[in-house]
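Now read this:
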Amino acid sequence: MPDLSYLLQLQRPAAGLSLREGYPRALMAGPHLSRFQGRGIEFDEVRPYQAGDDIRSMDWRVTARTGKPHTKLFREERERPAMLLLDMRPAMFFATHGALKAVVAGECASLLAWSIQHQGDRVGSMIFDASGADVHPIKPARGKRAVMRLLGNVVSHPYWQQRPEPAQESLLGILQRAAHVTPAGSLMMIVSDGRGLDNGSEAMLTRLLQHHSILFVCIYDSFEREMDDAGLLYASDGVAVQQIDSGRQQLRREHAERFARRHEILHRLEQRPGFVLIECATDDDPVTVLEGRLRRMR
């Protein structure tokens, strides 16, 4: 279980993370693709045309009605809400190196939420588990209270004490529910191991990119990427024990293919403007990973 006092201490390193939508802003030339989309602009007012105004901003309706040229004024949006989706399904409570995936995910989620809070934007959150249902979705709001509610839901989640049987659910349903509680134009942050990524969920993420930017932090354990031939292995959820014969070549191949399939989907999505992928292993330091990846994108 993550320590609440440590999650609170992550406020300090989170201040150095930059998730503002103008940052990182990708070059639109050459092979580079845009990443987080820049903050938009919204209509402010109409006033009489002045020398030097951009003719493309002319308000032709007002001009026709008054007989005098008028131009539209716009202002930069002052904020962009963020919605954080945190995976707490049973498979997240696993690791062979470092900390449990759920612990690392909780730390990543805390860092991202504190970063949004530091920059003065609204942040909301939604935890999803084996039932596929969200646990108390928190609407985007400013201030520390919204982050504290997320941290409280993380450390008090019942799966730290007792976990149900794993449920193989596509991420599609979870993403559809998240779409209903995420304001248009948000930065959607997903912290998950990516299990359940399939063609349907890939299509849904592609549709979400029409209205949001998406930051996907993929948490994984090195055993999931590749199973070594170490003979008989034993895995336990604290109650049941399962034996795995890692000497079987076909088993190791199928194991690696399952990992590769969901990562192929993520890497395809990464080629789309507005989608950012960050990969964090269970033996990585989340602060170092997030700082390094976001710094390279500026």
Remarks:
- The longest strand covers residues 41-48.
- The beta strands are 41-48, 70-76, 82-87, 123-128, 134-141, 187-192, 213-220, 232-236, 241-245, 275-281.
